[in-house]
Design a protein that fits this description.
alpha/beta; Rossmann fold
Length: 119
């Protein structure tokens, strides 16, 4: 994930409260991947994603939650996984694994921002 992609995520979430004392629900990022947790960790995608969030003040399970959905390289599963994130009412969907997850996310919602890494 490039710095530009991370900036886009944070632009979409700029209104989120960062203070620990805020009594508002914690924002949720949807992470939609064509691969698996293992495949996204090999090139360090998840590490870079979380590090970028932390650089902007967002720490998983502290002031932001991340809902992960893995297609396990079964692209036919992507539309259902994207729809699940939309039902969960995530604030933004970050995709990984090329165009198929981004296309599935775009088909599932016209209101939730979608962030795709530039290749």
């Amino acid at each position: 994930m490039t710095r530009r992609d991370l900036i886009a995520v944070f632009s979409a979430t700029a209104a989120w409260p960062i203070t620990a004392g805020a009594q508002q629900p914690m924002p949720v990022i949807g992470y939609l991947s064509a691969g698996s947790a293992e495949s996204d960790n090999i090139p360090g995608r998840l590490i870079a994603f979380r590090r970028g969030l932390e650089e902007m003040g967002y720490v998983e399970r502290w002031n932001v939650d991340i809902e992960y959905r893995w297609a396990e390289f079964r692209y036919d599963r992507l539309p259902g996984l994207a729809a699940d994130l939309v039902r969960r009412e995530v604030a933004v969907i970050a995709t990984s694994g090329g165009s198929p997850p981004a296309i599935a996310a775009k088909a599932a919602t016209s209101t939730i921002p979608i962030v795709c890494p530039a290749h």
